[in-house]
Amino acid sequence: LAEKHITTDYWVSYIPFDDVIPFLEGFVIFYCLWYPFMILTGLYLLIKDIPAFERYMWFIIFGFTISITICIIFPNGQDLRPLEFERVNLCTRMVEAIYKADTNTNVLPSMHVVGQLAAAIAVFDSKTLKNSFIRTITVILTILVCLSTVFIKQHSILDIFAGIAVSIIVWLIVYRTNIFKSKSLKAD
């Protein structure tokens, strides 16, 4: 809803460092991996670790609600997208499709960052996902997804920092209070 209504008269999310960050269309792959990673994390936890699934869902609910609320109260956008691509290839076509589907508004905080951190934290929270390989891949993918948001010029670096800040607040609420601990966890 906010995406369709806030399209002009917004605060521009930008710092000069954004100009130093190159456009790297190959990072669109990591940007797009966000979707299956979030879904697969949720499905796995739903089947194997219900308490971790519930915390993951609460994190997403709170994180995305806070992010959308910020965008409604504080309309924002970015003007970093290239006017044209230096090359035409599969990756630039993917970026072009993303640009058409997703406006350059409502970018701070980055919901890609909030969602990716939600999934990564859920992986580390799960009692059934202790495998160091899975955790290492999760950390690497999380870094690459967050970087992809600036490399494909969907976000300013400010949006990443804001996404991390929102995620820290939500993490404290969901994982560090007793409000969202299941009965089975309280018995531990």
Write up what this structure looks like.
- This protein is mainly α.
- The protein has one domain (28-177).
- It contains eight helices and two strands.
- The chain has a two-stranded parallel ribbon.
- The N and C termini lie far apart (42 Å).
- Residues 184-188 have low confidence and may be disordered.
Structure described in brief:
The protein has one domain (28-177). It is built from 8 helices and 2 strands, in the order αβααβααααα. The chain has helices at 2-5, 28-48, 50-73, 90-101, 111-125, 132-151, 157-175, 183-186, and strands spanning 11-12, 76-77.
The residue fraction in helices comes out at 55-70%
What is the number of helices? 8
Mean pLDDT: 94
Q: Report the structural category.
A: mainly alpha
Beta-strand content bin? under 5%
What form results from the Cα inertia axes?
globular
- Reading the helices and strands in chain order gives HEHHEHHHHH
The figure for the number of domains is 1
List low-confidence stretches: 184-188
* Count of beta strands: 2
Largest sheet: 2 strands, parallel
Task: Give the N-terminus to C-terminus distance in angstroms.
Answer: 42 Å
Roughly how many Å is the radius of gyration?
Answer: 17 Å
Strand order of the largest sheet: 1-2
Layout of SSEs?
Blueprint: H1 2-5, E1 11-12, H2 28-48, H3 50-73, E2 76-77, H4 90-101, H5 111-125, H6 132-151, H7 157-175, H8 183-186
